[in-house]
Write a structure and sequence with these properties.
Nuclear Transport Factor 2, Chain: A; 37% helix; 6-stranded mixed β-sheet; 6 strands; NTF2-like_dom_sf; alpha+beta; SnoaL-like; Nuclear transport factor 2 family protein
Length: 140
């Protein structure tokens, strides 16, 4: 696929994540997909999950079920950049939401999507982990 088509695929995938529709979300990932975030990130710690999700089913469960347990309301994503080169698409964004605790959440992210055969095969997620920990767990 062309870089332009890959960029569009990631845009459509991102819209599917917001839908919470497990079947729709699953169509965007390879069966052996991986999602890697920084170890000890606040979301994984708060939900008792892993920073390294392996397999489409684990990723879909996180996006369709677990995500909304943490980020309960007012989820908004502002894209800062969407860049494609071959089978790699880089997304820069700011996400804001209300946490289950009632605290406000706002953090910048960078996602690197690697595509294979027209589906997402690997995601590397980067964010300000210290900032996220302060918003999720307080200053302690």
């Amino acid at each position: 696929m062309t870089p332009e088509r890959n960029r569009e695929l990631v845009k459509r995938a991102w819209r599917s994540f917001a839908s919470g529709d497990k079947d729709l979300i699953a169509t965007f990932f390879t069966e052996d997909a991986e999602w890697l975030a920084p170890p000890g990130n606040a979301t994984a710690v708060a939900l008792g999950g892993s920073h390294h999700m392996v397999g489409r089913d684990a990723i879909v469960h996180f996006l369709a079920v677990d995500f909304s347990r943490m980020f309960v309301a007012d989820v908004a994503v502002a894209f800062r950049g969407l860049h494609a080169d071959g089978d790699v698409v880089v997304v820069e964004e700011t996400m804001e939401a209300t946490l289950a605790s009632g605290n406000a959440y706002s953090n910048d992210y960078c996602f690197i999507f690697t595509l294979r055969d027209g589906r997402i095969h690997r995601v590397r997620e980067y964010m300000d982990t210290a900032r996220a920990h302060r918003m999720v767990f307080g200053d302690s």
